[in-house]
UniProtKB/TrEMBL annotation:
UniProt keyword Ribosomal protein, yes or no: no
Matching PANTHER family: SLR0284 PROTEIN
TM annotation in the entry: 28-46, 53-77, 89-109
Keywords, sorted A to Z: Membrane, Transmembrane, Transmembrane helix
UniProt protein name: Phage holin family protein
InterPro entries in alphabetical order: Phage_holin_4_2 (IPR007165)
The organism of origin for this protein: Chitinophaga caeni
């Protein structure tokens, strides 16, 4: 159930992000759901391999190279999904950053969020 909620929130965040960034296009909510699922699979399978292969440069840049890896994963997803288009590396990098911020905000509003009113 938690996985499905994360996919739905990621899809909603992707839709919101496309309205913020003109270099990103999504055709429909179904495409956004497919994007969220494909990104989850790529983050599970491809990202660890890329992290290991680029470990020296990631350490040298104090972890900032992970943003580049995220952009590469977004570009791979844009090649795999027909209704999802990114205009280039920089738009993919911005998409990754903005979607992460929006997803984090939406997760904080969700049913598992901490209640600040408790003492």
């Amino acid at each position: 159930m938690n996985f499905l909620l994360r996919i739905l929130i990621s899809a909603l965040a992707a839709l919101i992000t496309q309205y913020i960034l003109p270099g990103v296009e999504l055709d429909s909510f179904i495409t956004a759901l497919l994007l969220a699922f494909v990104l989850a699979i790529l983050n599970l399978l491809v990202k660890p391999v890329l992290l290991i292969l680029t470990l020296p440069i990631t350490v040298f840049t104090l972890g900032l190279f992970i943003f580049v890896i995220n952009a590469i994963i977004i570009l791979i997803a844009s090649e795999l999904i027909d209704g999802f288009r990114v205009d280039g590396f920089w738009w993919a990098l911005l998409f990754s950053l903005v979607q992460t911020l929006i997803s984090s905000f939406l997760y904080s509003l969700g049913p598992g969020a901490k209640n600040d009113e408790e003492f």
